[in-house]
TrEMBL record:
Cellular component annotations (GO), alphabetically ordered: axonemal microtubule; centrosome
Keyword field: Cell projection, Cytoplasm, Cytoskeleton, Kinase, Transferase
Listed transmembrane segments: none
Cellular localisation: Cytoplasm, Cytoskeleton, Cilium axoneme
Gene3D superfamilies in UniProt: 2.30.29.170, Nucleoside diphosphate kinase-like domain (3.30.70.141)
UniProt record similarity statement: Belongs to the NDK family.
Native source species: Bactrocera dorsalis (Oriental fruit fly)
Cited SUPFAM superfamilies: Nucleoside diphosphate kinase, NDK
Domain DM10, chain residue ranges per copy: 3-91
UniProt name for this protein: Nucleoside diphosphate kinase 7
Length: 376
């Protein structure tokens, strides 16, 4: 019975050539991490039961995006009552806003979230305008808190996150309030410890209930509201934390390494890139690197985190400094020659080498614009 346990979802895939949305049923079998896809329109199997070790049960929830062999499927509903009853009351979304006054806490926040079994599904660094802040605060009931939040959001860039966990809204709220209920829960000990500092409690906003969480998420991640990723494009360079590192739970640790070694993050966006976009992005390596195809497959295999990075010392060349900090492409060589680099610490192979960094100085602006502007 355990072998046949499955979770079923309704999913949509946008077929660009025909400019139509096609509907599928996706079945995920937790035992063996296998996928089966059924084409509802043509009433036939689209993909027979196939193992996909890069996917896990945590990747499937309403609103998630799943990459299957280069095709991006949007999970829009449950396909049966068994799946709905199993997941609906547990896998919940909430919103977190890291204010400018607390951006240096990004690494510790992500580490605490991951250690407390939260998944980061979407992320974006933005600069609110006064009008956008008013729109964002229009549904807030606490007028005094809203006034303070307005001043904080106008004062500098903020980072917004959609995070997923069992009972996410209540769990986050209780951790921030330092309630006894959470203090006795070992599964969220890292978050409780993070919120012990008053400046952290002030610097991180979270909604009070599920309705407010839904409103916040709909506003922040809706392109129609005009919130755009911050991008400096001046003595800056691109870094991408690859999907395998995010799946392995190393996102927060890598961010902490970056920000504690002489770099600042001036742009941030989480992406799930289509295979065609990954091929286009890595086009310069086609025919040059034998790892080109697996590099594309890795970047398309799940969410990645794109960063605009600048050297904290403005007199230094951000491109060169960060490229050196990433280390050699092959982690085995990095471990021998430069053991303190990111690829030495978090890389596994030439393909699973933790981070992408811009290789040529003339490509920094091109790569930043492609990831932050063209893919937007």
């Amino acid at each position: 019975m355990a072998f046949n346990r499955r979770l079923s979802f309704i999913a949509e895939w946008y077929q660009e050539e025909a400019a139509i949305i096609r509907t599928f049923t996706i079945c995920f079998f937790p035992t063996g991490n296998a996928i089966e896809v059924y084409d509802q329109q043509h009433k036939r199997t689209f993909l027979r039961r196939t193992k996909m070790p890069e996917l896990s049960e945590r990747d499937f929830f309403i609103g998630s995006k799943i990459n299957i062999f280069g095709r991006q499927f949007d999970i829009v509903d449950y396909a049966d009552d068994i799946t709905k009853n199993t997941l609906d009351k547990y896998r919940k979304k909430t919103f977190l806003l890291l204010k400018n006054i607390c951006i240096q806490q990004l690494g510790p926040l992500l580490c605490a979230l991951i250690d407390s079994n939260f998944s980061i599904n979407r992320a974006l660094m933005v600069q609110f305008t006064p009008e956008q802040v008013k729109q964002f605060l229009s549904n807030k009931r606490n007028v005094e808190a809203s006034s303070m939040l307005m001043n904080q959001l106008i004062g500098g860039p903020s980072m917004g996150f959609e995070v997923i966990a069992d009972n996410a809204v209540q769990k986050m709220k209780l951790c921030k309030e330092q309630s006894k209920e959470c203090s006795n829960d070992n599964t969220v000990a890292a978050l409780v410890t993070l919120f012990e500092r008053e400046e952290t409690r002030i610097g991180i906003y979270c909604p009070q209930d599920e309705e407010e969480a839904e409103q916040d998420l709909n506003f922040f991640f809706n392109p129609k509201n005009g919130l755009q990723a911050t991008l400096r494009l001046k003595n800056s360079t691109l870094g991408i934390i690859k999907p395998h590192c995010i799946k392995d739970g190393n996102l927060g640790r890598i961010i902490s390494e970056i920000t504690s070694n002489g770099f600042k993050i001036t742009g941030l966006r989480m992406n799930l890139m289509e295979r065609v976009n990954c091929e286009e992005f890595f086009e310069v390596y086609r025919g040059i690197l034998p790892e080109y195809i697996p590099m594309v497959a890795q970047l398309a295999s799940g969410v990645s985190l794109a960063l605009e990075i600048v050297a904290a010392d403005e007199n230094k060349n951000s491109y060169e400094e960060f490229r050196q900090f990433c280390g050699p492409m092959d982690p085995e060589i990095a471990k021998m020659l430069r053991p303190h680099t990111l690829r030495a610490k978090f890389g596994v192979s030439k393909t699973l080498n933790a981070v992408h960094c811009t290789d040529l100085p003339d490509d920094t602006i091109l790569e930043l614009q492609y990831i932050f502007k063209i893919l937007d």
